[in-house]
Write a structure and sequence with these properties.
single chain; alpha+beta; SH3 type barrels; Alpha-Beta Plaits; 4 domains; 4-stranded antiparallel beta sheet; elongated
């Protein structure tokens, strides 16, 4: 075998390369460590083949008088440099990707190109004995010419290096780049690819991203801002509007309590004034749902404060009690006459902040409709009271006592001061012809609230991501 090796070194070397390529494809990309070990092992055999026949990649061929041996030595020397560049790229790339994940793909490609360039220069200098200094000078001049021709492409390339180094965004982040908003799905040497909310693909050149104003909605990962703008007629006093909108923020349970939520005047016009509500939530996926809830709550609290968007509504003969019966869904099955009779029998009750309106285990003897203010609903999970939901204008309490004289399974405690209206149980039973329809609606409401209670009790705690010095260092590799 050694005799065959000395007689046909090029065939042996080519066979090793073919075997290496075949094993590389057969093993598969998921087994990176095994592929790396196979490539390193075959490279060691390749070096042994070259040394066995007296060929060194660091010096020119030793048989200038024999063209065949000279050609074989030249081919093997150049192959060694390229093979060594490939092995080194695989080793460094495997360590980089295993630590930093797919975020390091761009750096891996750039590093591979640089290593192969060094391999080509080394082969030219040691094997082919070319004047590397002159070659580099010529290459420098050509690089200037090519650089001027592809100036924008080079700008994208170096901007991509800056982006991957400073990491203003990563894969799967929700970002806005120069007004283009979407989810980052790919960062290559030329551009950043975003999936927009409409499902389209936006390709932003890295040179533009490096100079543009970037908003990363995914950082910090547990805090996301929400903003809602409400237009109110300019004739309404701002203090009344701000009080109502502050109750809206207090009534939005999804807002993080540790961060300040606030109301501010955004702009003022002749006919209307714009007010902005700002807060923070824990998950970006719930942003649309929370904004919709804030819009609805803002409308209900403003309406409860007497704010009207319709100039003709001031002549509306309905009082607040009658308007509540018109707006609350469970009373829609009643006739207009029944609503009129109920409205006349509703009793107003004012309450203060942090007051227990209905305690756990207490049997309600009336149905209570919230007119103004915010009420917190808490349930007992076996150890302590936990908040299940918050209620605002137009929502009712005490349905368990009305349906079956059952005790309340939740505590209703006021967050702000406000007013509610009582509808006595006897009034409901004596004056309503459609009482069965009302009880059916109350039963449906009770079932929905039971589902909410069960979901809150069964809810698992959110997993907290670990962090530390090692995690910080790995994120910056």
């Amino acid at each position: 075998m050694f005799t065959f090796l000395q007689a046909h070194p090029l065939i042996c070397a080519a066979t090793l390369i073919v075997i290496e390529l075949a094993l590389w494809q057969f093993i598969g990309a998921s087994r990176r460590n095994l592929r790396m070990c196979v490539r390193v092992g075959i490279f060691v055999l390749f070096c042994w083949v070259m040394l066995s026949v007296g060929i060194s990649p660091l010096q020119p061929p030793l048989w200038p008088e024999d063209p065949v041996l000279n050609l074989i030595a030249t081919v093997l020397g150049i192959s060694w440099w390229l093979f060594a560049a490939r092995v080194l790229t695989v080793i460094l790339g495997n360590g980089l990707i295993s630590r930093a994940g797919h975020n390091a793909r761009f750096l891996y490609d750039l590093m591979g190109a640089l290593i192969f360039l060094i391999g080509i220069v080394g082969a030219a200098a040691y094997v082919l004995q070319l004047p590397v200094k002159g070659l580099l000078a010529t290459s420098g001049a050509m690089a200037v010419i090519i650089g001027l021709a592809v100036q924008s492409t080079l700008s994208d390339l170096f901007s991509g290096i800056v982006i991957n180094t400073t990491k203003p965004y990563q894969l799967d982040d929700q970002v806005s780049i120069d007004g283009t908003q979407g989810k980052v799905v790919e960062i290559d040497w030329r551009s950043t690819h975003l999936i927009t909310e409409m499902g389209g693909m936006a390709v932003v050149p890295n040179s533009l991203a490096a100079k543009a104003r970037i908003i990363n909605f995914s950082r910090p990962g547990n805090v996301h801002g929400v903003s809602v703008i409400i237009a109110v007629p300019s004739s309404v006093r701002p203090r009344r509007v701000i009080d109502a909108l502050e109750k809206t923020l207090r009534g939005t349970q999804a807002l993080l309590p540790g961060l300040s939520a606030k109301v501010s005047v955004k702009s003022s016009h002749l006919e209307y004034t714009e007010y902005e509500l700002k807060g923070y939530i824990a998950s970006d996926q719930n942003k649309t749902e929370v904004c919709n809830l804030m819009f609805d709550l803002a409308h209900r609290h403003l309406e409860a404060a007497g704010v009207s968007w319709d100039a003709g509504q001031e002549n509306q003969p309905w009082n607040r009690q009658r308007q509540l019966l018109e707006d609350v869904r469970i009373f829609r099955s009643l006739s207009s006459d029944e609503r009129e009779r109920l409205a006349s029998d509703m009793t107003p009750v004012d309450y203060q902040a942090d007051e227990v309106i209905l305690a756990i285990g207490e049997v309600a003897d009336c149905l209570m409709v919230i007119s103004t203010g915010v009420v917190s609903v808490s349930i007992h999970d076996g150890e302590k009271l936990i908040e299940a939901m918050r209620m605002g204008p137009g929502e009712v309490m005490g349905e368990e006592g009305i349906l079956a004289a059952g005790p309340s399974r939740a505590e209703f405690r006021s967050i702000t001061s406000g007013r509610l209206f009582r509808i006595e149980k006897n009034t409901l039973e004596n004056q309503l012809e459609h009482l069965s329809d009302l009880k059916s609606a109350l039963s449906t409401l009770q079932d929905k609230r039971l589902e909410i209670r069960q979901a809150v009790v069964m809810q698992k705690p959110v997993e907290i991501k670990k962090s530390g010095l090692l995690h910080w260092l790995l994120q910056r590799k």
